[in-house]
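Everyone, study these two lines:
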Amino acid sequence: MKTEKQQRLNEYYLKYKHTESGKKARRRAEQKYKKTPKGQEVQRIANRKKKLKFPEKIKAQNAVHDAIKRGKLDRPWVCELCKAEVFIEAHHNDYAKPLEIVWVCAACHKKLHFHKNSPIKAVISAP
């Protein structure tokens, strides 16, 4: 059973981790951990599991990467959806068609994947 002091501390840390400074502190700790031998091994294991769980996704990502390296695809610097001039990511609507991609910024890419009823998703899905 936790003491009252332990409960108060626990509540404080639960709130802190959602603040901007808490998120920055967590990110710094993650980056530091990833540089350790244990952190690198954990990352290798996670990558292997991802390759086994989503082989078609990995193949599509590799195809885009290879096409960019070989000059068959050019990575633009403008998001096709919001027109932001930032680093652009490739979004696949269908992993079976690896070179049919939509070039989007990180913010729009996140909306495409995590917001089911996003108006952006409707724009992408339209023929």
Notes: Residues 37-53 form the longest helix (17 residues). The mean pLDDT is 87.
